[in-house]
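Fold this sequence, please.
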Amino acid sequence: MVAIVWQYATGKEAVQRATLSAPLGLWEALWCDRGLLMMSGPQEKEVEREGALPAWLARAWESYWSGETFEVPLCAVPPLSEFAHSVYEVVAQIPFGCVLSYGRVAASIGRPKAARGVGSALRCNRWPLFVPCHRVIGADGSLKGYGGKEGLALKAALLRFEGAKIERS
């Protein structure tokens, strides 16, 4: 599980980036002094590091791949909608190796008919892994939508890495 510290930047902060190595490839992270702005992966090649990796990011990255609980400051520029913010808060609390359906996430935020809205909010997730949208699946246990070049194959690989048990009905 992730403890998120939400930060909002002015848009004038210096942005740095680096490639982070992981069991499932290389990921790119962009951050400012206030927190992580976004990440994407896996990448085909490393980007040139533009600054020292902050200790909070190094700890969070290592903790994710070890299945440990961690805290990470996420910097939302532009700010998230209230709906997206509530979805991300629920998704960040899905334990390593566990899954929830889009409908269960929607019910958790008090909007039980908003499963598609949950999917739309997660489609715009700037912090995959830290807001682990790969842990959100269809009501029937099927893997639904996942962004990036690898799409559903990456979602499946992340869930396998975490040891998630997915029961299809």
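The CA atoms of residues 15 and 32 lie 5 Å apart. The longest helix spans residues 55-66.
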